[in-house]
Amino acid sequence: MDIIIERACGMDVHKDNITACIITPEGKEIKTFSTKTSSLIQLIDWIKKHKCTHVAMESTGVYWKPIVNLLEAEDIEFLVVNAQHIKSVPGRKTDVKDAEWIAKLLRHGLLKASFIPDRNQREVN
Question: Less CB within 10 Å around the terminal CB: N or C of the chain?
Answer without folding.
Answer: C
